[in-house]
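Batch manifest, entry 17 of 40.
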Amino acid sequence: MFNFDYKDKNIKKVHFIGIGGISMSGIAQLLNFHGYEVSGSDRDDSETLDNLRSLGVKVHVGQRKENIEDPNLVIYTDAILDDNEELVRARQLSCPVVSRGVFLGALMKNYKYSMGISGSHGKSTTTSMISKILVEADVDPSILLGGKLDEIQGNMHNGKSEYFLTEACEFKGNILYYYPSLAVILNIDEDHLDYYKDINHIVSTFIGYMKNLSEDSKAIINIDDENCLPLLEHIKGDIITFGVENEKATYNITDVDFDEVGHPSFNITSDRNGFGRHHFNLGIIGRYNIYNAAAAIITSFETGIDIEHIKNSISNYHNLHRRMEVVGEYNGAMIMTDYGHHPTEINATMSALGEHKKGRLICAFQPHTYSRTKHLLNDFANSFNDCDEVIVTEIFAAREKFDPSIHSIDLVEKLRENGVNAIYIKTFEEACKYIRENVKEEDTVITTGCGNPDVLAKMIVK
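Output type: structure tokens
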């Protein structure tokens, strides 16, 4: 088992293969702040790499074996393939070479109170909500986020306390390396099917994660999600549940309402620790955000934060970047971008926007990975029913090699079969030109995907 201790003076130089990723860059910054000599590489240059350079991190664009000099530790992202020449070179050395997930699990153990936020959807939003609450309550936790939050000026925060907050992603079974003192499970859905066999494989992995929790830990579980229910019998610590209009839940969400814009409000009732009954208002839209906010509220309360402070912070929360983010306007239309890349996420976002739209709702979707597009093709085809038009761009391959058996045109044809007005436009440049020529006043245009569709949104506004 790999162990990492901040006090271990034998590790001085750490190299990251794939340092530009949102999680990798956050860990790199954290180690840099702790005085380690950090270096790394990525395939392409980016604003993230520029930020790392400004902090004194040595960054290489392009991944070559020469980039591996004399590190004491090498950390690689899951997107790196086994034949990557930096990874091959690193494994020839005598220093430890570990994946991001293995390292994150070891990093957690440096903190007395560690919080891992898991779920197929909503991890980043929920983690950022908790981040805002804890930072504004002067808890000063160390934080690793899957997005950029204004309250911490980025995707990480180097705190001085014994609290550590991170997203705990299930990809490649990484959660099996984590042993937090508090674990949140928002939901469990079919995803990452390039690794998992099926939903049963995913659920069994979450069960394995729950078995990691100690007897003095807390597990906060959404019991409205049927895939979460099998986890309950495998938790040795304190089981805390939440749900909407669910009297079996420890924390019951009731009286859900929406204002004219779509901002939710609701009550939460519980007999636990004198919580009682409290009313909450959100400053973001989307029915799914009720669950995200409830998880953040419960986690913060269970951490000892005053309920009135929680109410104030949660009502003033205004999303991470790339989560239903307004980029600007063009020709009287609102241009937005989102990170949604799974059918469930996309459907929830389009439904929330469609419910309160004035003009047309136009979505430009960049599919992410061939395997996800292929395995969930029919689900994707049913995710855009609230849109007036869908533009599908080229698939963002990410960690995968070209697969000729799936193409964006396949999704366009499925959408058309479902009665959705859909077209295929290969490049962002062509999509930008098309949107600019066709968008009208009061339309809403949203680009979505976890590749780089925010670039398209910015191109339209510029």
